[in-house]
Amino acid sequence: MNKEILLLNLDKLHTTEMGIERIKNNIKLNTNNIVEYCKNKILDKKCNIYKRGKNWYCEIDNIKITINSYSYTIITAHTIKK
């Protein structure tokens, strides 16, 4: 799947209140602007973006961000164990 689809729709990116808390806890973030944080990670040239099933996955800096490909809702983000 072409990652350009996700990149062209970054303005639709959003999350829920529960999503904000889940992401902050999972990756130990101290910010309330989770959407902007995720956008910046996704826009990084080193970000590995791929689609599997109904979700986009974005991996960078030992973080994996999961986004619903239909609604552009950030479902979760977590650290990648190596």
Compile the SSE list and pairings.
Blueprint: H1 4-8, H2 17-27, H3 34-43, E1 48-52, E2 55-60, E3 63-68, E4 74-79
> Rg from C-alpha positions?
12 Å
Average predicted confidence as pLDDT? 94
What proportion strand? 25-35%
Distance between the termini: 26 Å
Helix content: 25-40%
Largest sheet: 4 strands, antiparallel
* Strands in their spatial order, largest beta sheet: 1-2-3-4
Estimate the global geometry from the Cα principal axes. Answer: globular
Kindly state the number of beta strands. 4
Poorly predicted spans: none
Order of helices and strands: HHHEEEE
Helix and strand content put the structural class at: alpha+beta
Count of helical stretches: 3
Provide a short characterization of the protein structure.
The protein is an alpha+beta fold and 82 residues long. The protein contains three helices and four strands, in the order H-H-H-E-E-E-E. Strands 1-2-3-4 form a four-stranded antiparallel beta sheet.
Question: What do these coordinates show?
Answer:
With 82 residues, the chain is an alpha+beta fold. It has helices spanning 4-8, 17-27, 34-43, and strands spanning 48-52, 55-60, 63-68, 74-79. It has a 4-stranded antiparallel beta sheet. A hairpin with a 2-residue loop joins strand 1 and strand 2. The radius of gyration is 12 Å and the shape is globular.
